[in-house]
UniProtKB/TrEMBL annotation:
Biological source species: Vireo altiloquus (Black-whiskered vireo)
Gene of this entry: Cryzl1
Any single Pfam family the record assigns to this protein: ADH_zinc_N
InterPro entries: ADH-like_C, CRYZL1, NAD(P)-bd_dom_sf
Record protein name field: QORL1 protein
Residue span(s) of domain Alcohol dehydrogenase-like C-terminal: 48-114
Amino acid sequence: VQKPEKVCWVAAAGTVRDGLRAYTALHYLSQVSPGRAVLVLDGASPFGTIAIQLAQHRGAKVISTAHSLEDKQYLERLRPTGARVIDVSHGKIDLAESCLEETGGLGVDIVLDAGVRLYSAEDEATSKCQLLPHKHDIITLLGVGGHWITMEKNLQLDPPDSHALFLKGATVSFLNDEIWNLSNVQQGKYLDILWWPQLDEPIPLYEAKVSMEMVQKNQARKRQVIQF
């Protein structure tokens, strides 16, 4: 797809994957609009960061979760400000209760998850899974007519889960990274998705090896744009 002239190469490179996912989730799958409440789980991830910016650009009220103190501080520095950050790193916060409190008991209109726990805590021992919300929490905090956008490809909804979603008139949509590439008809819509998020400065080619090593050692969660 030809790059629009007003979009610089750095912005295009930095948004082509996570920007595409965020735009697909908020525009095509849920149609975010001013005044709606959006919950972005793991907001400090590359996808979460760009989703927060896009939702705020559309005038939505954004709530985000942080998986560590560093993530919380990063989200609080993010511009534009205004996103409510919920630190879930200690496991002492009831996410559903916090979101209902933030929305006056009405629930969240749009949820963008980063994976969910499908079973009880004792069945999933890894610390990473413990930071993910249980599917019941998401269903509880979802408002009437809400949209749950999930990246959990193995999501299992039991009859009580489906009944609760039915009573709320809520929808569940699956966010597949590759769906745009599978349809030649849809590829032209890439032109609508390249926009201007907040990006770090690109790194020169000679620093690419160091950045890659940091990613491989889980010392960095962000994506980097390499300037040739």
